[in-house]
Structure formats: C-alpha cells, structure tokens
Amino acid sequence: MPATIRPLLGCLTSLALALSVALLPATGLARDRHVLWAVQGQHNTVYLLGSVHVLRPQDAGLPPAMERAYQESERLVMEIDLDDPGVSDPRAMLEDVQRFSMLPEGQSLRQVLGSDYARSNALAQQAGLDLALLDRFAPWFVATTLLELELGKRGFSPEHGIEQTLAARAGRDRKPIEGLETVAQQLGLLAGMPLPMQKRFLIMTLEDSRELDRELDELVGAWRAGDTAALARVLTSEFDEFPDLYRRLTVDRNRAWTAQLADLLDDRDDYLVVVGALHLVGPDSVVELLGKRGFAVVQQ
Question: How do residues 151-168 score in pLDDT, each as one tens digit?
Fold first, then answer.
C-alpha cells in the first residue's frame, strides 16, 4: 500500500493544493483575531477552530486563544473521531483504504489518464512518484499520495498537526471525542467522484505542486493574522475550475455539519469543534450557516 493512511483522516479539503493542511499557527505571537469562533447556545458555548492538519515539529502548538478554548471545553468534536477503534487500528484502516482507493477491476490509472499519462508521469517522477507503481489506484488516491510526499519534503507531518495533537491531549485529559463523519464516509466521498473529475483533479495537483511553497506562504500569513477574507480567497481560488468538487467536498458537508452543531448548542457541555479551515470561511461556511440560523457567532 503506497503512502501512509493517517494523512487521509479528516483531510478531505486538504486535497486541493494543501488548501488547509499546512497553515502554521502563530505560537508565541499576540494576535487580535484567530481562525477561531465562539457560538453561544442557551446554556453552553461551542468553539469552532479552523484546523491545521499537518505541521512541522518546530511549529506545533496552539495560540493562547485556542488553548483557552480547549481548556474550557468538556468535549471535542472533529471531522472524524481519532479515538475510534476503526481509526486507530491500522489493519481496519488498511481494509477501508484498499476498498475505496482501488480502481474497478479491469481499469488502470494509465487508461483513466489516457493521452495525459506520459506528461502526468513525468511530473509525478519529478516529485519522486512513479505512476506505474500506482496503476491500480484511483486518481484521488494518487493525488493524496503526491500531496503527502510534497509536504513531507518540507518537514510537515500529521503527527504534529492540530487534530492529532488535540486527540492525544484529550486522551490524557479524558475528554470525549466525537466525529462528524466516519472514515468510510470520507473515503466514499472521494471514491464517489466521477473518474473524469478525479483525473482533472490529479492533473491539477501535479501541475500546481511546483507552486506549493508560494501558496503555503500566503496561507501562513492569512491564518496567522486571522484574516478570514484573505483566507477564504486563497482557499477557494483553486476551486474556481471545479465548482462541483467544491460543492461535494465543502458546501454539502458544511450543511450537514451545521445541523449537527446546532444540536450541540442545545447541550450544557462546552464543545471545541475542530475542522479544516476551509469549512469556516467564505459565504458557504459553517460560520455563515450557523449565523443564518440565528446563532451569535463571534470571531476570537
């Protein structure tokens, strides 16, 4: 099985050119705003944290405002429950990934890419990936593998990202973790993309991976400043040519999550909800959708 499994977890939105996976937290820096919101329920507070799925070891940690949100919350909610046995058991995860990442019998990556195969393979080899070794795998999985390689070259790892860091702390602090989705739901969403869409997405990932450093710099600045307008512009710009992909990976999921989060606001426990930053910025964001439901959503 090429590539590790863990980077897939809770990282659907990171597929589009590391949209939200490599934002550096402003540790040790005083900032007026963060990619963090507080939503007031009748008896509780739900915090919404725009997450960083992978980080370098030297960048790990939370700004003070996010640290306070964690300390004040009795429960955590993430895109998936990283404490779930189906997630923590490598064998179970391997079975799920194999089930969703393979092309149907009789199909190959070479066939799916067609006349674009030679050029795509040349670009992949520049990144250290031989498409011939991935010929039975779906384009979405190949794109994920490529992205992991590119981020790994720059020292980024999910083990140091916000989700896994908070999941480990929650385990030590005995704070329950809940998931908005299951692993099978996330993998099924990717595997369910039409092959032509997957092909276009893989080619885009191959072509734009060479500009990853510049894009990371832009994301870093917007995230550190808590500049949600700039963050939304950077994060959504790559979807301009893929409105169906944006709807599938972002808008539809935001709507489903908003209904779940509204239920949390009827609880008495305080919650910290940790999702990819893309889901919390822009006109279709969870923040906007909760506001339309009448909740007071305040950026921290």
Answer: 888 887 888 888 888 999
In sequence order, which residues have a C-beta less than 8 Å from that of residue 263 and are 6 or more positions away?
A: none
Residue 137: phi and psi, rounded to 5, are: -100, 150
Q: Which residues contact 153 (CB under 8 A, 6 or more apart)?
A: none
Give the chain's radius of gyration (CA, Å).
19
Q: State pLDDT tens for residues 243-257.
A: 887 888 889 999 999
Question: Strand 271-276 and strand 45-51: pairing?
Answer: parallel
What's the gap between Cα 137 and its chain centre? 21
Rounded to whole angstroms, how far apart are CA atoms 84 and 76? Answer: 13
Is 90 contained in some domain? no
Does residue 43 belong to any structural domain of this protein?
yes
Contact 280, 44 (CB under 8 A): no
Is the model's pLDDT at 239 over the cut of 80? no
pTM (predicted TM-score): 0.85
Count of the separate structural domains present in the chain: 1
- Does 82 map to a domain? no
Q: Look up the domain containing 268 and give its range.
A: 6-76+95-299
Instruction: Quote the CA–CA distance of 73 and 46 in Å, as a whole number.
Output: 8
Report the alpha-carbon distance of residue 17 to residue 206 in Å, rounded. Answer: 9
- Give residue 119's pLDDT: 95
Q: What per-residue confidence (pLDDT) applies to 20? A: 39
What is the structure's pLDDT at 14? Answer: 42
Whether residue 89 lies inside any domain: the answer is no
Residue 17 pLDDT: 35
Other Cβ atoms within 10 Å of 30 Cβ, number: 8
Q: Distance (Å, rounded) from C-alpha 184 to C-alpha 107?
A: 22
- Point out which residues pair with 51 in neighbouring strands: 276
Give the phi and the psi of residue 104 in degrees, each rounded to 5: -55, 150
